[in-house]
Specification:
- The complex is a heterotetramer, with 2 copies of chain A (about 325 residues) and 2 copies of chain C (about 325 residues).
- Chain A is an alpha/beta fold and about 325 residues long.
- In chain A, the strands form 2 sheets. Chain A has a 6-stranded parallel sheet with strand order 2-1-3-4-8-7. In chain A, strands 5-6 form a two-stranded antiparallel ribbon.
- Chain A has a single domain, classed as Thiamin diphosphate (ThDP)-binding fold, Pyr/PP domains (Rossmann fold).
- Chain A is globular, with a radius of gyration of 19 Å.
- Chain A is about 45% helix and about 10% strand.
- Helix content of chain C is about 35%, strand content about 20%.
- In chain C, helix 3 runs parallel beside helix 4 and helix 9 packs across helix 10.
- The C terminus of chain C is likely disordered.
- The chains are: A alpha/beta (about 325), C alpha/beta (about 325).
- The complex binds thiamine diphosphate (2 copies) and magnesium ion (MG) (2 copies).
- One thiamine diphosphate sits at the interface of chains B and D.
Chain lengths: ~325, ~325, ~325, ~325
Amino acid sequence: MSARPAQETERAPEPAGLEREHDPGAFLDAYARMVLIREFEQAIHRLFLKGEVHGTTHLSAGQEAVPVGVCMALDADDYVSGTYRGHGHALAKGTAPEALAAEMLGRASGVCGGRAGSMNVVDLEHGLVGCFGIVGGSIAAATGAALSARRQGRVSVAFFGDGATNQAYFHECLNFARVLELPVVYVCENNFYGEFTPMENVTAGGEIAARAGAYKIPFTVVDGNDLWAVRDAATEAVERARSEGGPTLLECQTYRHYGHSKSDPAKYRPDDELERWLARDPLTIARERLLADGIGEDEVTAVETEGREEMERATQAALAAPYPDPRERPGSEFSG
Amino acid sequence: MSARPAQETERAPEPAGLEREHDPGAFLDAYARMVLIREFEQAIHRLFLKGEVHGTTHLSAGQEAVPVGVCMALDADDYVSGTYRGHGHALAKGTAPEALAAEMLGRASGVCGGRAGSMNVVDLEHGLVGCFGIVGGSIAAATGAALSARRQGRVSVAFFGDGATNQAYFHECLNFARVLELPVVYVCENNFYGEFTPMENVTAGGEIAARAGAYKIPFTVVDGNDLWAVRDAATEAVERARSEGGPTLLECQTYRHYGHSKSDPAKYRPDDELERWLARDPLTIARERLLADGIGEDEVTAVETEGREEMERATQAALAAPYPDPRERPGSEFSG
Amino acid sequence: MSELEFRVAIRDALAEELERDESVLFFGEDVAAEQGGVFAVTPGLQERFGANRVFDTPISELALAGAAFGAAATGTRPVIEIMFGDFMALPMDSLVNQAAKLWFVSNEQGSAPLVIRSAVGAGGRFGAMHSQNPGTWLQGIPGLKVVAPSSPADAKGLLKSAIRDDNPVIFLEHKRLYSIKGPEPDSETVPLEEAAVVREGGDLTIVSISKGVRDALQAADTLAGDGLEIEVIDLRALRPLDLATVLTSVAKTNRVLAVEEGPRVGGWATGLLGSIAEQGLHDLDDAWIVATEETPIPYSPSLEDEFLPNAETIVESVRARLRTGVETGA
Amino acid sequence: MSELEFRVAIRDALAEELERDESVLFFGEDVAAEQGGVFAVTPGLQERFGANRVFDTPISELALAGAAFGAAATGTRPVIEIMFGDFMALPMDSLVNQAAKLWFVSNEQGSAPLVIRSAVGAGGRFGAMHSQNPGTWLQGIPGLKVVAPSSPADAKGLLKSAIRDDNPVIFLEHKRLYSIKGPEPDSETVPLEEAAVVREGGDLTIVSISKGVRDALQAADTLAGDGLEIEVIDLRALRPLDLATVLTSVAKTNRVLAVEEGPRVGGWATGLLGSIAEQGLHDLDDAWIVATEETPIPYSPSLEDEFLPNAETIVESVRARLRTGVETGA
Ligand SMILES: Cc1ncc(C[n+]2csc(CCOP(=O)(O)OP(=O)(O)O)c2C)c(N)n1
Ligand SMILES: Cc1ncc(C[n+]2csc(CCOP(=O)(O)OP(=O)(O)O)c2C)c(N)n1
Ligand SMILES: [Mg+2]
Ligand SMILES: [Mg+2]
């Protein structure tokens, strides 16, 4: 990943942006992270079918370019908040695949010791303030983190879905962030469905990004399956945030390959819709672009193999880890 | 008031509008209602200073043209919801001044038997679903009433302030109403302050009506001190609602002459601001227009005298009414 | 005897009331979609009653509840679904400050006859934000009825009563109950304000609600093997609270255990014991609670299983308490 | 001895903590304006600490609490004001599902050190939506501390502790206390988890919190004239609940009365009695509650005065209960 060392001071936006622009390895690294996320989702899917992942889980396969592209624009100490569909948010920000897989499996070595599960992952060390099982919750968490970020020379990013833009949190927080000129980027992963319901059926006006206009917040609609497009839009937004330009809304249009959650066969999708989106798989798009940009096929393949292997190792390690023992470590209500 | 008999069926918008347009007495009647509201607020103010009105109270003097103009466009059986600054909302919709004054005084003859007080008045008989002490609550109440209204051939109106447009209710309900195409009119009384805080300090973008645009809800900004302007805009919106055209947002720009509530001397206002608005007193504007439109000065004066006298009678009757006796009528938690 | 599935009982109650009364509406997130909600409770209702009466909404819990309130105040009887009980915190203002207050504050001009259905409870490895029991958040709100059925028959009868009730009713359906089967109801409706003695016995009264009642019944079966006759009471509602039925039972058994899927502090179980202490202290030889730890609900199976009360922990607690007679929490 | 006004105690605590710790912020609706909030508690703070640390916000309670959560999770110590306790239903999701859960669910990676100040309670003729005590809505939420001071000294010491505490604290200030005066505190902070025995006596324990403690103390004075020695306990917090102090007292007095400004069902008072019954039944000769009716709070002075507990109703209730010994609710 493109994470750079923590910097507590403010910096001019331009050089940082340009530096990234011309870093040849950055997009290959980013592609590697996308591959890892895809492998992760597929591994979790298999484990779910085997009964190893419990309750429910929400896979983000098909949406990988969004968190990865956004996190390319971030530093390691910037903040993000994610959703119950948050594996990609966590992995893109730096959570270790093994710790994340172990969390899904409810193991003691999970990033939250097995207490959180798929929907509620927190990884403060990597700046992940939380994943939120409550639709819209991530918007507030990142807005608040931006209050800290402003004092720390950092920025904050909220990931959320199209459905979340109809929630109270969306409205109150966007207004709040603009009023206070907070360094926050609102990243809407518009995958055109909230559970079984098409976005346009429940989203008045049908234009998500335009909602930011009501608050005079700058907004952009991006092809969320194009890593380069996401990363460019995010870079601009992050630089605006860092240079005291306040919040931005990015609408990244994308698609989830699986159903909403483990129990959803996604029969509500029109014929061919999935096929059309599979043809625009963000991994394929990225692969082709890398090759076109002169990265060798061997390098790309190596990254893919590595991702598969890393995930395999992570899965095995997670499966081998013990379940937490509540008697050994009962857990406390309060800190201190 | 222009309230017409209840009609359960739908009707074509045009004739109704025209009929009202040419009714010569309607504006004089409306002026009479504005006078009554002004007299009411002044009476409550005096009673408050004497310690007869308890707790707190929020006067709407200066804003009379908004509820009166809007209610000119409504039928008696249409619904409205109001705010803690709701005396005008109630009186414009038909609540008896004596019953309302008695409520402020906590008397048994109050429209809610003294249980509600100034902030929470309900008058279902007159279609007042409630006044809401919670900023934004009125928006939800009217949105829900529109679900009934749609089935009953009626419309529903929410009154709320500029500050309420930053509340969760505003966003969720406007989206909901557009998605369901509900017959509801959202009337924002923009008096440029929420308590002690100027509207523009806390309202990102600074344009309230434009927020409706995000949901593709038609909107208009009106001079809220001009009865004719308010009534025309409301008529259009109500007709849209009645003819299945869905919701509308009206922003009525106006000003409260008093402070936010009884304890507020309104020192935060810039010099001259009140004076400038007093020069645009909605009562003065209406009076002049009536005279210009050929209503005789004697008729106008008669209406004013009547308003004063009606309010004086109402005040005396309310003051003479007994306090509710909790032992006689303890009140129950549940209906039935 | 034909058996009724809990989720079908809910579906049937809704369908029958939609059929019976034109003023009943049903809406929520994904409830009208083919699947009929995430727990497959309400498929087919939109086809049957039309999109004007049964419809999907945006993900806007506050607008949902607020719209239900406004509709209920003006002649409609809305039933809405708040998908998970944990989300009840979002529309809380509308419940507390709108629906609950209309009847009293309006001086009894009218009330808000609405029902909020919601899936609650833990045990499904759904984690801390999809497993809570919001009943205790709401028990202290005068003007709200808070109901939670423990069997398919009750689910049907109580939901029908809730829809016909003129007051706002929070109707909590435990996720672990959706797939259970039980006898058909033997009456059209079940009153919302009467606790049920679901098993009789003279040695100890166990009081619970929702899934806890099934656990208590199962525990009572086991304890019968120890020679203990357990009386089991299903509260059915947390508000209004049918204390009389509990007091009558305790006057007979002199011992009471309350089983709650939730923390002790601020829970309904301690409150119930307090009310018994206030009104029936001299009948009381022992009173205690089986509840959860005072933490959020953990995800991992090993943690969640240890966290939750069940038939076994009830049995253990009864054995330990009656054997030792020691007055410490179980 | 110099006397401290309750509202000034709050203001001083805030000012001292803002001074002491750069990471403390304070924001809310109209709190930074010249008036310093509708109860004139916080004037002058913005002038002193600057608009970056003390500022006014939009009327957006959910964003306020959510922003406080996100800030608290990332190194800031926000104190926010939710103007009236009744509005606590609006940000409830952020309290319940965000702030309260971070510590446990993250496996103790971090917590959310935030404070929510709010004006609560009735008696001011503010009506049903500006008079509630939301403490009981929140008492059952593991991970939240719920504190309510009864004196200026405690207000200052408890608020300072709340700001320094690493957990989310709901800090409830009774409106009827803002203008009272009392002695200066004799310590820098007051622990959040210790109930205080504010008057000693051997005949009866009265437990309350917030304004109820003052009523209880006043009642105890009157009852001293009857020859009754009343012990008065100020819970200070509803969560965590210092049951030990209560149990010790009840072991001595054998009688307990809990005084709550709120309904019995779902209130903290019944819960407290239940916990005493669970752990100290054999010490208990009598236990009862003075609370409100089970309705929303009425506006009219004649109704509100009758509705609320006060020193007089406590005295009456004690006299009636101790005279007759009858076990019915007072
Ligand atoms: C407040 C709330 N309401 C409802 C749900 C149930 N729910 C979980 S995901 C989801 C759909 C969200 O859609 P969207 O925001 O578009 O995100 P996506 O799942 O498509 O990534 C719903 C309704 C929830 N978790 N929280
Ligand atoms: C949810 C909520 N937050 C805060 C308040 C306190 N409060 C009462 S009126 C008011 C200002 C509202 O301003 P606006 O909506 O512009 O209406 P206006 O009073 O100007 O008519 C505030 C903050 C409240 N009653 N409800
Ligand atoms: Mg989506
Ligand atoms: Mg205003």
